[in-house]
Write a structure and sequence with these properties.
Layout lengths: L2 H11 L5 H37 L3 H18 L11 H13 L6 H12 L9
Helix pairs in contact: 1-2, 3-4
Length: 127
């Protein structure tokens, strides 16, 4: 349920339905709110990393971006009911890049590696 429909439903339930129905909907509203807050925190962290790299290239920040994308792909690529991951090749390449610490040394190498492997620019949000 989207937030507009949820709020409308909450307004309409006041005085017409049992209070527990309103409070159940309030829990849904808080769930939506907390999800939005989590997404905003993620965006702020991403923007912080990107702004640091825009000011001065920092290989440690770039390395952390690789570590973060490994964690994300592990979750996103999990094949239900198996131990397989849809992004196993990408994960292998990312882990190797982290271990060798070569692609993080300058902007051109980093963006070329990231774009070639993941298909989008590292400093453009992919959603």
């Amino acid at each position: 349920m989207n937030k507009e429909d949820l709020l409308k439903s909450m307004r309409e339930s006041i005085g017409k339905e049992e209070p527990t129905i309103f409070f159940a909907k309030m829990v849904d509203a808080f769930t939506l709110l907390f999800q939005e807050i989590s997404e905003l925190k993620t965006l702020v962290n991403y923007d912080t990393a990107c702004s640091a790299l825009a000011i001065q290239w920092d290989s440690q920040v770039a390395r952390q971006m690789l570590v973060d994308v490994v964690a994300k792909l592990r979750v996103d690529g999990k094949v239900p009911g198996t131990n397989d991951n849809a992004f196993s090749e990408e994960l292998t390449a990312l882990k190797q890049a982290i271990a060798e610490n070569k692609v993080t040394q300058n902007y051109n190498d980093f963006t070329f590696f990231w774009t070639s492997l993941l298909g989008y620019h590292p400093f453009v949000r992919y959603t």
